[in-house]
Each structure stands twice: as C-alpha cells, then as structure tokens.
Design goal:
It catalyses: 3-O-(N-acetyl-beta-D-glucosaminyl)-L-threonyl-[protein] + H2O = L-threonyl-[protein] + N-acetyl-D-glucosamine; 3-O-(N-acetyl-beta-D-glucosaminyl)-L-seryl-[protein] + H2O = N-acetyl-D-glucosamine + L-seryl-[protein]. Helix content is 40%, strand content 12%. The protein is of the alpha/beta class and 668 residues long. The chain has an 8-stranded mixed beta sheet. Strands 11-12-13-14-15-17-16 form a 7-stranded mixed beta sheet, sandwiched between helices. A two-stranded antiparallel ribbon has the order 8-9. Helix 3 links the parallel strand 2 and strand 3. The protein is flat. The protein starts with a helix and ends with a strand.
C-alpha cells in the first residue's frame, strides 16, 4: 500500500492520472470475489482511494469473477453488484470487469440460458454497468483478448463479433495486440479489431510484464508502437514488471510516448502473483486538449533519468560510532565506489525487452559464440591465436564490467531499489562468471558444485525438451550472414564432380554416414532389409552425368564460397534411365519432375534454402510440369525435416524403393 501511494505522487508529477486496482494478492479481487471486504480491509482501500484523489489520480477498481461465476444465477449477479456497491461506498467511481485467463466451457445451467460464452459475459457486464449508473470509465477484458486467441481469425471470431455487437457502447474493451506479449502492434491490426468490436480498443500492453519468468526483468523503453496508433485507440495500458522501483523506465517512456498526442496519460495497476503490484499506464482520450507534463525532458539520457530516480530516495542511515582508522601495516578500509551512469546503462541493456537484448548484451553473446567456435583454429594458427586472445580479453573486460556494476549497485544507499533488483543482478553475475571460467572437462564429475548448473527443476525440464533454446533472442550463429543465390553455370559442373570441392565431399560423406547410421541402428548390415548401395535418382545430377534442365539449377554462396545448391529436371525419365531404375508411369504422370536441394552445415538459417526451392519449383511449373518429387534416405533427418516443414511436400508411394528411402512429392 505504501508503494501504491508513492506511485500516485509520481503519476501526478509525470502527468499520469489514473490507477487500476486489480492485484491478485488481494484474494477478494479474483478467487473470493463474492466476499465483502472486512472493516480493516475497507480502511486500507478507503485510504488508497483517498490518496489517489489527493494526487488527481482516478482510481479504477477491477474485479475478476470468471473463475467460477454462474452467469445465469440471479444470486451470482446480485453478489457481484453488492461487492461493487461496497467499493462504491469507499469513494470509487470507476470500475472494470475482467474475464481473462479463464476456462471457456460453460456449466450446464449457463448453456441452457445463453447460446454462447460471449452472450453470457456481455449480459452480466451490461447489467453491472447499468446498475452502477453507467460510470464514465468502465473497462471490459474479454477472454479472447489477443489475435492469437481468436478462432479462426480476428475478423471471423464469433466471440468478438458478439462482444462488439452486444456490449453497451459506453464500455471500453481491452486488447493486448497480436499476442499476449506483442512484439509490435501495427495500425492495420488495430483497424481490423476495431471494425469487429464496433469501437476503438484500449491496448493492454504486456511489453514490460515479467510475471511469466522469474529470471527476466525489462528495463528497456516503451517501443515498437507507432504514434500513428494514437488516433485509432481509446487508450493504452502498459503492464510493467512485478517489482515497483525498476518500472521507472517503463512508465516514464510511456509518458513520453503519449506526449505525441492530446491523450491523457493514465496509470493503472494490476498485480500478477506478487505482493508488489504492477503498474499499468492507461491513456484515455478526453475532450479537453491537455498536455502531459513530465519531470525530465525526453532528450535526457536514460541513465540520467535513472540516476535522478535513485537520488530521490533517502540514503540508508548507519550509526558507525567512533570511526575506525587502520594502522600503517593493516588492511585499508573497504570503500564502496559510487554507482555510475555507465552502470545504469549496462543494467538496462542486460535486462532490456522480451524480444530484444540491449546492445551490450548482444555484443557479449556474439563474442562468446565467436570465441567458442574459433577456439580450435586459434590453437593451430598463430595469426588466429593473436586475434582470439585479443577478443577474449575484450570479452573478459565486458564481464568484469558486469561484476563491478553488481558490486557498486549492491553498495548503493537506496536499498529499496537494490532489493527489487538483487535476484536479477546476482543471476547475471553468476552467468557471466560461468562464461569467463567455464568448467573444463577435467573438473566435470558426478558431484559438481550447485552453482555450475542453473535453473533447478524448471531448467532440467526445459533442457529435456526438443524445443529448448530455439526461441533464444540470440540465434546461433548471429543472423548477419549475407547469401547470394545465382544461376548454375558450366564451371559448376566441374565443381560438382571435383573430389576436392565441397559438393562432392558432402555427398560422399553423407552416403557413408547413412550406411554407418543404418548399420548401427539396425544391428548391422545383416539385419537391414534394404539395399545399402541403392542409388538415388539425383546422383547423376550431382556427379555431372546429366545436366539440369534450363532455368532449373541454382547455386548458394556466402562470404566463404559455395555452400548450397538446388537442381531440377523437368523430366525425370533420363535420370531413371541413367541408373537403370524403373519408375512407374503413374508416379511420373503426377510428378514428372525431379528436384534435389542441399546446403552445407554452416548454413544455419533456413531462409536461403526456402528461397532456392521456391524459385526452382516456379521454373519447373513454368515448363508445364504438374508436379515434382524428391528422394531421401530416412536417416537424412536434416533434409527430411526441411521438406516436411515446407508443408507442401508429402510422402508418395513409389514401387521398388528400399525401406530406408522415402519419396516426397508436391503438385504444381
């Protein structure tokens, strides 16, 4: 409660003027929504509402009955009205009904009374809104509050259409954007949902929310929301971190963003799973043309605003008594260095935004990735060794800056901010410590120290899942490679056939790998029923015995050189004849063309291969072909996964193939 009161002071100073109360640590807000507040609880809320009024802040009380309400029971509706009437007696005049994050299946009684879940929610919301006298501010949060929740789409969502058509026009509707935590929110997406809701939405923005990951904090700015959104909206909310003090940047940058309009800046609060309530900034359009006033101009650097925030707190007072003075041969007194602006800048870049690391964090990840990948080369080459050592020292300096930031912040006089930040900065300090001094193979044993492995039970669950790491913000390697797709030329025929060139080596290694893999998995070649020497149709293309069809051969190059190809025959019969394989007429009727594609393992990005196969199939289609097929060994998981993820290649039946070979085709 003390932090909420402090928040009202900051809102008034920054030009924010509304606060929405919906903390989940108040169990009478959600789980026990029917229960009235006790005298002691009422006293706290009355004081909070009064404090909000003293600072010209509108207090909105939100209630979330969706966990177990029976919409068709008049007693339930009466209980909801009675609860809000009590809060109204506390001095509150603005309200919100939230139906987010609940089950969508109605009980039997509600199914008899309402045709859909949306009709049930709209009925109770309209009834409460009218009972309260149609307050000027009344917010409704739908169950489908983002585009990804809508079935099948936003424009075709029967739920949203019902809400838009039946909900009374004085009620504002909350919307989080394309996703629960939206990376970007476009004008076009808002125009689409507005047409369905029959009104402009209020954005409930989770860009700074961190209640879903206890290891993440977001100190980056409010961004990737164009100011062109403003005239398309009824308002914007931002739902920041659970911790109070680190939200200075999130709230202040929203206040700066809203200065681009004639909107009021509102601050709303909603807590998720912690006693410390989160802050939400609610920007609501008003008829009066008022300007938001902020304590610091937006031109001030972020670090300066953070330092001013820190300096507003009283330093921790200590009673040292008589000062100790060490002798000439004794250890000098430890003196804590003051926090610097660079420390605060580093802090914000280490804990930036959900979809983006700050510049320093990105650089550290890229440098560590380079050092790890170039370690072997550095050990063998003198010139590479010097570069590796130089970059290793630079990386170590960046790690040391993190450690020193931790030390200075730990000794900062503002303990309240430190307590909010400590778990996060301690975790990142330990992380860079492991990066600086990774456990060597010699010290790995069955009884390691616990700081050498991270994440507890949750971390072990994640590491066991196949998707672990595939959504890291830092891709491996960094997606900065430039690729060139060019037509196949006669010189490439030599390249393909030359035993010293990448293609030939790749093909021979893969053929050997498939044989070894099959032998190991099937208990030896004797237990394998297929033909290990069975040739694939595209082998004659790879070995240069047959030339690709015109406009049906592409080469992929990166900064190192040739790294991939896509080859095709509009008529697969010559390839079949070359290796004396019979292909049924029924297959060639539907899939007369042959394609093959391969990229070297260093090409980690799938988009170049996607573009090559797209261009190749387009050329084959232009020749009049009605379909194309490819052949793969089942043990070639990499390319099998590639064709499968394309979505339009499907397994086809082809007589005479060994059990370890699969044919896949696509219609053109």
């Amino acid at each position: 409660m003390e932090q909420r009161t402090e928040l009202f002071k900051r809102e008034q100073k920054w030009g924010l003027n509304t606060y929405l109360y919906a903390p989940k640590d108040d169990y009478k807000h959600r789980m026990y929504w029917r229960d009235l507040y006790s005298a002691e609880e009422a006293e706290q809320l009355i004081a909070l509402i009064s404090a909000a009024k003293q600072h010209d802040v509108e207090f909105i009380y939100a209630i979330s009955p969706g966990l177990d309400v029976t919409f068709s029971n008049p007693k339930e509706v009466a209980a909801l009205k009675r609860k809000l009437d009590q809060v109204k007696e506390f001095g509150c005049r603005s309200f919100s009904l939230l139906f987010d994050d609940i089950e969508t299946e109605m009980c039997a009684a509600d199914k008899q009374a309402y045709s859909t879940f949306a009709h049930a929610q709209v009925a109770i919301t309209n009834a409460v809104y009218q009972h309260l006298g149609e307050p000027e501010t009344f917010l409704f949060c739908p169950t489908d509050y983002c585009a990804s929740f809508c079935t099948p789409t936003v424009s075709q969502s029967s739920y949203l259409h019902t809400v838009g058509e039946k909900l009374l026009p004085g009620i504002d509707i909350l919307w989080t954007g394309p996703k629960v935590v939206s990376h970007k929110i476009s004008v076009e997406s808002i125009e689409e949902v507005s047409s369905v809701l029959k009104r402009a939405p209020v954005i409930w923005d989770n860009i700074h929310a961190n209640d879903y990951d206890p290891q993440r904090l977001f100190l980056g700015p409010y961004k990737d929301r164009p100011t062109e959104l403003i005239p398309k909206l009824r308002g914007v909310l931002t739902n920041p971190n659970c911790e109070f003090y680190p939200n200075f940047v999130a709230i202040h940058t929203l206040a700066t963003w809203c200065k681009a309009s004639c909107l009021y800046c509102y601050l709303i609060n909603i807590n998720a799973f912690t006693i410390i309530s989160q802050q939400l900034n609610y920007i609501k359009r008003q008829g009066e043309n008022k300007v938001c006033h902020h304590s610091l101009p937006p031109s001030w650097p972020l670090s300066a605003r953070l330092k001013k925030e820190s300096s507003e707190e009283e330093p921790m007072q200590t009673d040292m008594g008589e000062s100790y003075v060490p002798g000439p041969d004794e250890n000098p007194l430890y003196t804590a260095e003051p926090l610097t602006l660079n420390d605060l800048k580093l802090l914000s870049e280490l804990f930036y935004l959900p979809y983006e690391h700050g510049a320093t964090a990105r650089t550290m990840l890229q440098e560590l990735d380079w050092l790890k990948n170039q370690r072997s080369a550095a050990a063998a080459e003198t010139d590479k060794t010097a570069e590796w050592c130089s970059r290793a020292q630079q990386f170590d300096d960046m790690c040391e800056a993190v450690v020193q930031m931790f030390n200075r912040l730990s000794n900062a006089p503002n303990r309240s901010i430190l307590y909010d930040l400590y778990n996060y900065i301690c975790d990142i300090k330990s992380g860079v410590g492991l990066a600086r001094h990774p456990p060597s193979a010699q010290v790995m044993n069955n009884d390691p120290e616990p700081w050498g492995f991270r994440g507890g039970l949750s971390g072990e669950f994640q590491r066991m899942l196949p998707c672990h790491g595939n959504r890291d913000l830092f891709r491996h390697p960094p997606m900065t490679e430039v690729y060139c797709i060019r037509p196949y030329c006669p010189e490439d025929k030599v390249t393909m056939a030359d035993p010293q060139m990448p293609y030939y080596i790749l093909v021979k290694i893969e053929q050997w790998f498939h044989k070894v893999l099959i032998s190991v998995l099937d208990g030896g070649a004797e237990g394998f029923q297929g033909d290990l020497t069975f040739p694939l149709l595209h082998c004659s293309l790879l070995e240069g015995e047959i030339s690709p069809s015109p406009q049906c051969a592409l080469i992929l190059e990166d900064e190192i050189g040739v790294c991939g190809y896509a080859l095709g025959l509009t008529d697969a019969k010559p390839a079949a004849a070359k290796i004396q394989r019979a292909v049924s007429d029924s297959v060639l009727k539907d899939f007369p063309s042959l394609v093959t594609i391969q990229v070297l393992p260093r090409v980690m990005d799938s988009s170049p291969a996607n573009r090559m196969i797209g261009r190749l199939l387009s050329s084959i289609r232009s020749s009049g072909s009605r379909g194309a097929f490819c052949e793969l060994r089942k043990s070639d998981r990499r390319m099998l996964d590639f064709y499968t993820k394309l979505g339009y290649f499907k397994p086809i039946t082809m007589a005479g193939l060994p059990q370890d070979i699969i044919a896949m085709g696509t219609s053109l």
